[in-house]
Amino acid sequence: MGILIDRVVLRRIRMPLVHFFETSFGRTYERQMVLVEVSSGGLSGWGEVTAGENPFYNEEWTDSAWAIVRDYAAPRVLNFELGSAEEVNARTAHIRGHNMARGGLEAAVWDLQARRNGRPLWAEIGGGARREIPCGVSIGIQNTVDDLLRKIETEVNDGYQRIKIKIKPGWDVETIRQVRKRFPSILLMADANSAYTLADAPLLKALDEFGLMMIEQPLAHDEIIDHAELQAQLSTPICLDECIRSAHQAAQAIRMGAGRIVNIKLGRVGGFGEAKRVHDVCHAAGIPVWCGGMLEAGIGRAHNIALATLPNFVLPGDVSASKRYWKKDIVEPWVETTPRGTIEIRDAPGFGYEIDRAFLDSITVSKEELR
In this structure, is residue 349 part of a structural domain? Predict the structure, then answer.
């Protein structure tokens, strides 16, 4: 029996961050997110569009995602009987780009399918390789190095297994040198968010001395060729993020030696279907993957937990506790970590958490229902 989607509800919410988060793109103080609810016969599934407020990480942003889901993606699934959630990607593939908008809708249908089948989302997507996922944290650029060192100490004391720090020109080699001096043995990586060019290869080569797990996306979002040239000069593994939007691009990058690790972000690749295909391509090639984050609220965070139970997610990801970002989350209970620096997966149907409806309504700034 197929899934007949009879209603799609879009919600735009606004959530202030506990602490600003800065990357090479700029500083963020609050998140504005689009949530997607899909319904069939009175049962609902939920997805979160992970696009930022501005088109800096990729071409998408909150306003564009709302329009794409409302005007193009949702009409392709409304009143259409889907054989399974796997078909959403193909139904919306005529939309060029806008993977985060499409992925938010597709994730909602996966959640609906899991709930209808009475299964946890992680089982519905074929996960379950582990009962706990290893967790790392992503720490943005701080006002001072001392501020950064204090934040790292807090996260290490909370048990997180891996520390990622954002870098940009002027906040790189010497910053990492001081971090390594203070924390000589932690698992440490650097994320550049495309802040460098191939001309910076000597500077990036200087990072080899610090024993980093990886340098994430040092070059431009569309520069697989230059990443291959850079990787040949570095002993530190390059992790590809923005470059990889599909399994095909992952296969190309692996073939060219453009990186030795891949970060899979659910929204960036367009949802669970393509995320699983990227995972499988990397797994077959012996390339480890981990789950990246986009400052998600509880729904997106729960989806990331499910994704990270697939077998090749062997490195600690960016999935961390709700309290690191929000004074209050939209799910109950909040996402929490164990003293071991892990998150235990939940067995409730769907993404495994309840939605705090009253709080969700209080932070909703716009809502639109499509039938």
Answer: no
